[in-house]
Amino acid sequence: MVPFNILVLGCLIYVAILFLVAFLVERRAEAARIGWLRSSVIYTLSLSIYCTAWTFYGAVGYAVRSGLEFMTIYLGPTLVFVGWWWILRKLVRIGRIHRVTSIADLISARYGKSNLLGVIVTVLAVVGITPYIALQLQSVTLSFAVFAAETPGWAQADVKWTALWVATGLALFTVLFGTRNLDANEQHHGVVIAIAVEAVVKLVALLAVGVFVVWMVADGPGDIARKIAESPLSEWRPAAGRWAGLIFLSAAAVLTLPRMFQVMVVENAEERHLAVASWAFPLYLFLMSLFVIPIAVVGLEVLPEGTNPDLFVLSLPLALDQGGLAILAFLGGFSSATSMVIVAAIALATMVSNHVVMPLWLSVVARGGKEPGDVRQLLLRARRLSIAGVLALGYAYYRITGGSEALAAIGLIAFLGLAQVLPALLGGIFWRGATRVGAAAGLLVGFALWLYTLFLPSFGPDVVFSARLLAEGPWGIAWLRPWALFGLEGMDPLLHAMFWSLSLNAIAFFGTSVFTFPSPIERVQGAQFVNVFELQTGARSWRQSAVEAEDLLVMAQRILGRDAAQEFFHAEAEAQGKAGLLPDTTPEFIERLERRLAGSVGAATAHAMVGQIVGGAFVSVEDLMAVANETAQIMEYSSQLEAKSEELSRTARQLREANAKLTDLSVQKDAFLSQISHELRTPMTSIRAFSEILRDGAALDEESRLRFSSIIHDEAIRLTRLLDDLLDLSVLEHGQVTLELGTASLRSLIDRAVMSSASSGAGRDFIIDRDVAAEAIMVTTDIGRLTQVFINIVSNARKYCDAPQPRLTIRVRERRGVVRVDFTDNGSGIPRKSQGLIFEKFARLTDTTKAGGAGLGLAICREIMRNLGGNISYVPGQGGASFRVVFPKVPRS
Amino acid sequence: MDKHVLLIEDEPNIIEAIRFILSREGWKVSAHADGTTALDVIRQARPHLVILDVMLPGQSGFDILQALRSEPGLETLPVLMLTAKGQGRDRDLADRYGASHFMTKPFSNAEMLQEVRHLLGQGA
Question: Which residue is closest to A679 within chain B, CA to CA?
């Protein structure tokens, strides 16, 4: 006898542990210490969300009603996993290369990044999965009710509310851990580990109940075998059609259910985990099904007649006064339900936000001509709302159907609904001739038939369809009867629906594909998907265009976040052999950028967003020919050749840059000499002219005399400062400088810089925005030199920032011993063409009088940073002038 | 009659020096510091002599000289070029574009006076 309160308490503690586990794992993941957390064991365990409450509790009920038929639900996935080499491996590879975010995204990406298909699959998934989520809520409520029934004082009415509490709790958990990262490829480590824990709990719970039943209630396996032979279960004979049909259906479902796709493809860390899962996952399923029959048989024998067989797993231990075991069984069922709901909600929310919210928002922005703002926040908000929406929908569905019998069959109904994606999915990855129109036709036909023949009638007579319509067909047309379409009578409703929906779906898909022509992007994507193992590169859906890398960077920052976008651009530029943040906008680069973005917002949206910037530079006939040729030549394409030509083009690019640099250098040398001449002669001119005036003893009043001599004095000082700077620069450039190392806090350095530069640009209201807490880093370097660099940058900002309310933001970050300080103002920034110049000697963008220096400041800064083992660079696309100073926290020896 | 000298130069101290030297001789001196609008100013002011610096913000002195020489009515306006770069190349360019005379900074005041006097047609 378990008091209901203790059960509720145990349940809350269990949930708290799950939160804690997810939280700790996310913390570790942030510190990049995940190691074993991404192992093949975890991967396999996470796949177990296939086993929902419907299989945990329902399998026993299923066995009581239809004998061994429950095995089909496990056999289908087993076949798929044993044969992983053919389908799963390809799906996972495509998912990784194309950074697929959901099954809707995969279909949309394959068929020319068509958002229409994304929307169709999303709608199909929401319609099919919502009742499935309701089923999970129902199972939790029912299992609570079993306990509550034995505890006086708990009315059934209270239990009704559990569904609401569970739904709210799950929404909270999913939002917390499912929407921390935007990029689906960054994956949800916390969630995956929590699911793995739940997978262990449900397996242990079911095995424990099984062991209890076989060895404690019965007298071991022999006794069980005898009991089975005596029970009505042994009279069951398999019906070949239904048997094969169900195996096929569950095999299809494991590929197309959004939650399975999420853990199998999106959350996959390494392809080789699949090889382990190919035997480990079937083993898990085998263990889950091992004790189903014994529990069913013993349950029938021990429990009073009329006990719901769907809850035998729970009511058996309760009836035999095994309170602890009952709680364990309860937690097992609870785990099965919650893990399914969490992952399904994440998967559906990703689809809804990427295929419905983003495209809508993009079109609104495009129509309004507005500049897109922070896409990241918008997307995260959309995803959170979608999660809450999906769960609210599931709860509403549960309340409306009132936990009726209609829910019991919903598992298989949902399977068939999602299986409608199968033709488009398999056709998409194995057949290059499959087209967008074909996929849409197949999906729509299948969807409609599924709704008509299975989903809507499943509510029972007179709910959606009247009893008369079900019995006689609409308007009395017999061959349109939902359960006997086209005169096919006497068939099991599920098989009947499966036959018509899948066969007509496949016919529509293949037929329409054959008679329509794919668009250029479809052809490219088709080749990419079908030949994913052969074609690793050479995706060309973009042509070389004059697009500015800076514009792309600005957009990427909005989606990926500042740091991630800059890191990506930097790595790309480096791979091209270029320094700085802006790579050449080659078609390959744009393609990779688009894929990276697709990991956050889905292929269709990413394509549209890149398209907005790159413009009409889509695929041309030439590019298509190239793809066609490439596919034909794969065999002779030696990878060595490819690597070589890539290396050659990289060398060529480097040589070109070196040559340009050398040419520039000789021009620069001349220019430098003439600049020095100019800078020296200008103050000299004033000095000479005024000293001659004074010498010639013209009739001057005292005031003029004083004024002229002070001009001479100022100009002499200017001359000295110039010479100092030149000497300083020359010493720094030739590395003859001795660094005076010292240790100080970064905060004190910045304090000093801000104070010293207060004199320049005086009289203006100048806001300096600092994060003082982050500046508490001790650095060992030449403190004086580094401060000199900071002073230079801050006083430049004071002088040149042209915003009406000038503001300088200083941000500090330390990572792996490297300190990074960003100085960003809110002025109009430095024009693109001048960005490469500012660190050159005498590069002055404005006139002399305003600058008040010879234009050596940033050149000296650059040399200082080089001597300190770091660098200074201009960061484009930050909305103002932005300088980044990077240096080691402690000098490297 | 007062002769008008227009000085196109961006260093305030040099402007002051030249203005002092020339106005002491009774000439009217006005100054303009920006290269881009220099041509308009010359067109409006119609000075007797232009002293033109080479390094100007906006537009170089050579560009201004070229534009000046191709404009009817201004082809013969005396132009004294000033440069602080002091390279032979600048002198060649000044000659090619039709400067009346070329001086390197720093200059001696006496030399400057003599040259201006010469260009204004008052020399010996």
Answer: B84
